[in-house]
Amino acid sequence: MAPPIGTTYHEGELAVQAKMGVAHTAAFRSGHQKTFLSKPVQEFFAERPFVMIAAHDAEGSMWCSMVATSDGTPCLSDISADSLVLKASTLRPNDALSGALVVGMEVGLIGIDFVTRSRVRVNCTVASALANGDVELAVEICASHCPQYITQRFWRADAAGTSGEAKGDEASARLTGPRGAPARFRPNARTVSSLEDVRGLIDGSDTFFIGSRYGRKPGDGDARHGADASNRCGSPGFVRVTGRDTLAFDNYNGNQMYSTLGNIVKDPRVGLTFLDWSTGDAVQVSGTAVIDFAPAGQGKEDGGERVLQVVTVRVTSVVVRVPEAVPGTWTKAQSRPLVLSRKVQEAEGTASFYLEAPPNTPPLAPFKSGQHMPVLVGGLNRSYSLSGPPGAKYYRISVKNIGKVSSALHELEEGEEVESLPPAGSFGPASLKPGSDVDAVVLVAAGVGITPMVSMAHAATMPTAVVHAVRNGKQWPFRGELQEISARAGVPVRLRAFLSGPTEQDLAAAEATAGEAEWKIAAKRVGVEDLLEIAKDLGASRPLFCFCGPLPFSAPLQAALEDAGIPAANIKSESFG
């Protein structure tokens, strides 16, 4: 299957997408992948003290490694739209990829902010090797991804900024695999004779990293045919040792791009890294992967996530334990109980849940507009946008009754408790850097995607328009609240609604003359010309467009805005469905 012109997917990814029946959705996500680093992505990477990389060694084995500074300074420098410099010199001498990055090699890179749960993936090629051991990477494909499943952690740099070679046993033991190929000797690496020796770490992991590659041949200049670094997260047990030289992990529903699985069907070689967050040690595994697309019990949740595929990895090299590969001190975010103080029906099938700190417990942590909050129900973790005003004594989430967790929330009675993790994320005007030239904000939502926009409207500090696409008045949450916000706001907050299936009552409202703080209603689907006109009415010269809704709604509008000359850096989005 040859990739269609214009797609950012190679034939392996397209084949898996088709097999899983998500080709239509994945096609919309293709537009989210860029061949450059946008300004926000450059700023994101400029603050990262650690990233994970994936590449192959001289023997062709895939590995995944952490590149990190011990003092919290950035591990990337000289960042531009087309390239960046990776401080590969900080790799421990015993790391599997130490000294392996040579000119022309494909390198996958992923940066994760474990506090905000933001992540960005970049596929690169080594453009040059610097004298100090660092490497310049040429950018090929870049994409930001959702925070789903990421375990929130807090990080603190080493007090003394210690660095240097890790300590360990200077011994090398081969783990016998199908090929029985020993890896090259690495001083100070603690090799282990069997996965059984690290079962406790692997079976107890809620996070690991995986590197894969398309298997680019010499002379192949197709940017889609590179290496990829990704993360996998879940409750302990989602990845487990299944034999002396085998392990398996469950694959859940994610962004439906299937970059890792698409690589595996083209080239089964993978590298996995497991981090011991308490000691700082890393366990690196290299092997070959096989995908089971119809695992036993597929689709059943059994109190956990719905498993779509199971990937089995057979180790074909040594298993390397790298001491002190992860600098700093890591603390896993702890959940806390919240009591449901009030439940309000906002529209047909959508309710708001007001969650407060129980008596005699610490007050709620502050949050910014545009952030989300993970809620734990029945062994499942789902993140919901905070829809209330920042600074309130409560957290408010507004949820449509679709899915297992959402249904469980709708069954809650006032006075009952739920477990939650701290608010996280960075989306919307609150994420703008000081000195930003943005002079107005256009918030574009479809259906229940309005939830983060309500919080942003509460916190508006510059001219703002709220654009809400709904089917009809019965499915229109926050209609009255947003009018109240508009009426009392200290800056202009304009309201526009686009109804795709209006009732007679809706049509009458659309014909009525609306005041400044009232909704202007159009009985049609919103188009890019509407958004541009709305921004113009705000007097904007550098508007920020924020989208929240299903991909088939938001992706075409975002692409059309770019075609109309709106910089990609001024278009933000969160999606669902």
Automatic annotation (TrEMBL):
Which superkingdom?
Eukaryota
Which terms are listed as keywords in the entry? Dioxygenase, Oxidoreductase
> Quick one: where's region Disordered?
163-182
Domain FAD-binding FR-type residue range list: 333-430
- InterPro entries (alphabetical): FAD-bd_FR_type (IPR017927), FNR_nucleotide-bd (IPR039261), OxRdtase_FAD/NAD-bd (IPR001433), Riboflavin_synthase-like_b-brl (IPR017938), Split_barrel_FMN-bd (IPR012349)
GO terms, molecular function: dioxygenase activity
Q: What is this protein called?
A: Putative phthalate dioxygenase reductase
**What broad taxonomic lineage does this protein's source fall under?**
Eukaryota, Viridiplantae, Chlorophyta, Chloropicophyceae, Chloropicales
